[in-house]
Amino acid sequence: MLLNKDQILAAEDLPFRDIEIPEWQGAVRVRTMTGSERDAFEASIYDTTGEKPTLNRTDFRAKLLSKVIVDDKGQRLFTDKEITQLGGKSAKAINRLFEAAQEINGMSAEAQAVIEKK
After folding, report:
1. Is pTM, for the whole model, over 0.70?
2. Mean predicted lDDT score pLDDT of the chain
């Protein structure tokens, strides 16, 4: 079936997954990013102040997680201004969420390598 514009825009295409975080005594909801959020994330990981863009890995995991950790209504829990605070949490918990976020967003190791090469 060929979809029309209204069908595309009406599609519920942001699945989520609840991840148990023992360090925080509860679960955290991680959802798929929108296309705009993915673009903003990818743009945020580059330092473009020099002659050539370079990968800026500062708070790399927290930057991604700030885009995908949501409440039960699908609203982001962390703003871009709160990335450093989120990055200050347990590395083990952050990494568990980061791996889930990569998986649900189709960000394989190969895809990340391509981003880093650019």
Report:
1. yes
2. 91
